[in-house]
Write a structure and sequence with these properties.
alpha/beta, 6 helices, about 30% helix
C-alpha cells in the first residue's frame, strides 16, 4: 500500500470517546477500508445475509468438489485481517485514530465492533473511566455495545473485535513492537495503524504486508 506523505492538517486529539468531525475539518487521513462483511466474516452475534436454511445433501457425492477445502479457505480469510497504515507524527497519531474511527462509524461499523489501542498517553475516555476503578472500566468492554479504548500495556486483556485501531502516539519501541502483533491477532477483519510510517513499517516487518 503506498504511503501518503505527512499532511499538515493534523488537529489536537478529541476529548470524547467518539469525537465527531468538526465543521469544516478536512479529511486529512486516508479513508480506512471498512473491511469485509460477506457471509465469510459476519458480524459477531449477527447471522450472515445469506440463506439460513440447512444445505441440501449433494446429489452426486463424487462430483469432484472437495467440501473440506472451502471452509478452510474462508477460515484463512477471517484469520488474516486487512491492514491499513495511516501516516501521522507521534503527536498526531491519536487525532488520526479519531478520524479513522469517525470514518468507520460513518461507513456503518457498529461501535461495539471497534477497539482502539494507544501506545503512549491513554485516550482521555480511558483515563476518565479508569478513575472510577478497573472493574467498572473492564466491565464496559464485556458489555460490548460501544467503542472500547485501552492502553497498549493492557492489550492482553483486550478481547478480539472485528476492527482494531492502534495509535502509535508514544511509548518505547518494545511496547509498540509487542502491541502491533497482539493487535493484529485481535482484529477479525481490519487493523488500522496510525503513526510514523517508517517506524510502523519497521515494527510490522516485511511479512506484515504494509
Amino acid at each position: 500500500m503506498p504511503l501518503i506523505p505527512e499532511e499538515p492538517q493534523i488537529h489536537e486529539s478529541a476529548q470524547g470517546p467518539r469525537a465527531t468531525a468538526a465543521a469544516g475539518r478536512p479529511a486529512s487521513t486516508p479513508r480506512p477500508v471498512p473491511g469485509p462483511r460477506s457471509a465469510a466474516s459476519p458480524r459477531p452475534g449477527r447471522p450472515g445475509p445469506g440463506p439460513a436454511g440447512p444445505a441440501a445433501p449433494a446429489p452426486h457425492p463424487g462430483a469432484g468438489q472437495s467440501p473440506a477445502k472451502r471452509p478452510e479457505n474462508r477460515s484463512d480469510q477471517r484469520s488474516t485481517p486487512q491492514l491499513q497504515l495511516i501516516p501521522a507524527p507521534v503527536d498526531g497519531a491519536l487525532d488520526a485514530a479519531e478520524e479513522a474511527l469517525d470514518l468507520l462509524l460513518e461507513s456503518g461499523r457498529a461501535p461495539g465492533e471497534i477497539l482502539v489501542l494507544t501506545t503512549g498517553d491513554p485516550h482521555p475516555w480511558a483515563a476518565h473511566e479508569l478513575s472510577f476503578g478497573e472493574a467498572a472500566y473492564w466491565a464496559q468492554q464485556d458489555t460490548g455495545d460501544d467503542v472500547f479504548f485501552a492502553d497498549a500495556s493492557a492489550v492482553e486483556r483486550a478481547t478480539a473485535r472485528p476492527v482494531v485501531i492502534v495509535a502509535v502516539n508514544g511509548g518505547d519501541e518494545d511496547t509498540a513492537a509487542r502491541t502491533l502483533p497482539s493487535a493484529m491477532a485481535r482484529a477479525g477483519a481490519l487493523l488500522v495503524v496510525c503513526g510514523d510510517a517508517e517506524r510502523v513499517t519497521a515494527l510490522l516487518g516485511a511479512g506484515a504486508g504494509v
